[in-house]
User: Fold this.
Amino acid sequence: MGIRVVVVGAGLGGLALAQGLSRQGIDVVVYERDAANGRRQGDRVQLGPTGLAGLRRVLSQELHDLCLATASRPLAPPRMLDQKLNPTAENACLPREYTPETQTYAVHRATLREILLTGVNVRYGKEFTAYKLVGDRVKARFEDGHEDEADLLVGADGVGSAVRRQLLPHAEVNDAGLRLIYGRIPLHRRNELPAWVFERVFTLVRGPQAHVGLGPVILRNRPTDRLSPVDDYVACMVGTNRLPFDELRGMNGQELHHAAVSLIGDDWHRDVRCLLDRWDTESLFPLRIASAAEVEDWSTPGVTLLGDAVHAMSPTLAMGANTALRDGAELSHAIATSASLREAVSRYQARMLAYAMPLVQESRRIGRARIGQR
Assistant:
């Protein structure tokens, strides 16, 4: 009898794992609590070498090529500016240019997710509640009473992971104190926006009460008929540690826009204020940033974690999605090359914690130094 794997969570990491396992002929099913159209998690993902390598390891050549074909045009590395658009001292720590080995691309999250969903067995509207170890297997239970038994249960269910709560009840995920108001600026005509917005893959403009992040998504090729259409846009987010998340969560788009603009003072460059005036208010939603405390390796047979479920991190390094994609590739590879499933999971966990936890710590350090993270 072959291996059966149940993945909880149809985010990027869980789908990457499912792709890798499916290519090995392993029976894998993904359970997702949300409906098929999902909830907003942000429009843009910044894929660097780590994420790109993960995709290359789990996807067929056709799907991998489709990911690159629908990515944004390559741009120069990120930069940091003050509220008057002057470069800050932190730019000395950033690369001046990318090489072919370090090139980073912006991709539209929904398009990447559609590609990762290709051929994957996903069951929507299934909220995981608990698991039970049954001999060498594990039984997953869902809110609607459904149960599924597998050789391995993988919690890929994000920051609020229900799998993690049972597996590692002591593992802390802390509120980083940062709130983002996230949305997009449509690009009907590129010359409507300041030219400097399109020079870098990401620009962070930092003021005394808030920071503004701008990431253009200028597609090289339009998604094909098999993918949903996407227009060019600039992802625009305003971050602060001065607004209660519970209040933001109850606001509509217009109210979120007003809350963000209220943080931008008269000493900010007029370009920034003009950019916020072009925000699509219907696209706005709030995000709360979390950061995981360090966890030690665990030895529960048949259950493991990946992505934000185990190593949620501040977005300062743009490594959250990249690391989740690597997790999916690492676990898939470990299963393919290990003598047993127990050995595969053990190898994966040790390796994952070794590369992910330093990134959590570094993203926290930079977040505290640059954008007011706790």
